[in-house]
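Our collaborator T.R. sent over the components below with a one-line note: 'Predict the complex.' Nothing else. No constraints on interfaces, no templates requested, no preferences about which chain binds where. So this is a plain run: every listed entity goes in together, and whatever single assembly comes back becomes the starting point for the next discussion.
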Amino acid sequence: MAGMLDYIQFVLAPQVITGLALGVAVILVALGLTIIFGLLDVINMSHGEFYAFGAFVALALGWLGLPFWLLLVFVPIVMLPIGYLVERGLIQRVFHTGDRHVMTLLLTFGLGLVLEDSLKLIFGPNPYRPDTPIRGAISVFGIFVPSYRLFMICVGAAVIAGVALVIYRTRLGAMVRASAFDRNMAASLGVPVERVYAGTFAFGIALAGLAGVLLAPIYSVFPTMGRDFILLAFTVVIVGGMGSIAGAVAAGIILTQIQAISSLYISPVWSDPIVFGIMVLMLMMRPQGLFGRLGHA
Amino acid sequence: MRINKQMLAVIFTAIAIGTASAADPIKIGVVTPLSGTYAGIGQQVRWGLELATKEVNADGGIMGRQITLIFEDEEANPSVAVQKADKLFQVDKVDFLTGTVNSGSTLAVGQTAERAGKLIATTVSFADSITGDKCSPNVFRVNARAGQQSAALAAWLSKERPNAKVFFLGPDYEMGRSTVAAFKENVQRVGGTVLGEVFAPLDSKDYSQYFGQIRATRPQVLYTSVAGNDTVRLFTQLAEFGLRDELTVLGASGTVTAQNIGAIGKAAEGFVTGVGYSAEIDTPANKKFVDAFRAAYNKDPDLYGADSYGLIYAYKAAVEKAKSSETDKVRDALRGLKWQTPQGEKTIRAGDHQTIQTMYVVRVTDGKFKIVSQVPGEEAIGPNACHRF
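Returned assembly:
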């Protein structure tokens, strides 16, 4: 019995909670990805690099003396015009060509490479680590959780709820969903579709940047960090249903919990094959994902 | 007048050729990475060899013959290394060859050397197999191998923390598994307890998922052989979960390096590892070496620079003992050779061509490695696993 309690206290419960923190991190990255896909029908291959970009912007501003709390607000605001310009200046140029999917995929892939190498040129290849803004840990029933992870879970949940609220409950969100469902009809009803597109892309990029700020103290900052979450984030988007916010949340939590719990019993090397195996099964059995597309449900 | 000048030139040339054949330079080929990921290591190798060569040449060379170094870039790629080594043996007719960094290059160039009937020595490669089950009569190693590092660390552990309870965390590939296996064996040999092991995929994001398993076994010591960015994350997350203060963290010599120690910051404090050289070694010989190195290159020597520097003196001692630079005679002279290096006296074991040397245990204190203890060479060397000669 004591052994059992010990196991729950030391192993199982912390595993579930750290899995949850990882889940929130993945959802934050996947959220921007799924919104951009759902609305623009663009697979943003440079999303991971924008996540890294956000982390580096936070790092540089941190050196200038800005406190972490301001960075949480400031970095997404810096990312917004960058995202807007990328959509208007680059993506719109190839958006209307016949093979839009291939063109935008290649374009954003190339952009990601340029971004990654730029970061390498400016900051060098070595890692940096910003200080953890909240030190210490909380112990409940002997279950040990670092305070910053709890903070991350809470902020992440708030951001996800906020995004869902904007998309599903505001006039702005209605315009976004209308543009996703039928851009011509929306345009004829007076929705400024072009600006909605660019704005939504910018919003997705800002979310990636925010994820960068939040995760930097835990995962450290280096130019290739964008590759860390991107595969898992893509999997979450596919399993959840491309463009679905609720789907991304559900898939993000389920997949990271499967990873966390399974790595207790089988070699952690298998956690990636399990997750990608689920993705393949999902594509075979239910290609639309757990939930439907943005604007279609 | 014109004819006289030409005559003079001919005479001078004849004299020059005459003296040259009396004291042909000894040619040492250096196949080392001068570009790419390992360029930093290749740079230290080059500096160490050049400094020793300059000293030896200024002092009259080896038996009156000057040393000439011929460098080739191997790009840390075994197949390139083999081509470059072949060129050095066949075209440049070098007497001896050194410089290979990654263990694959050393093994491959060793076979080239066997075919060419020449000797090589590595001053960098760690893999135990080079002087173990894949040993070659033509290959010598003048630096400490992985097994020596891990034995030194275990000897320190048994003194500092007798009967320690140790948990192992390694990256899931060849290097990680072999370092963990080697240290596990050493821990058991000195009476420690192995509580468990976990292998995390390379480039893991989050090590906290293994902390539950680690905590549940209540270890005193954590041994890890992750490297690069992975170390930064592991140490950060250990600190975040309060484990860094509870545990003594030991590791492989590549776990915490100049490349990542800055980013790890405070969490690196107290990390302990075993190495064959440190610029901190407090002997007159080493002080003299470090000063000369700094004066020449404006950088501190690391283990690669020091071991490469020492090699030139080993070769000099062997050639002088053999009174020849012929392969078979030099091989006999190198076997069992004792010679002086910045880190003290080293001995080449005749049975496997592995150098026996004093090992050092270093600990991170205020962001820098400081020597905390040394282990006599005999205690760290381990058994001879070479059966080819």
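Summary for T.R.: The interface with chain B takes residues 6-7, 10-12, 14-15, 18-19, 21-22, 126-129, 132, 137, 144, 146, 148-149, 217-220, 222, 228-229, 259-260, 263-264, 267-269, 272 of chain A (CB under 8 Å).
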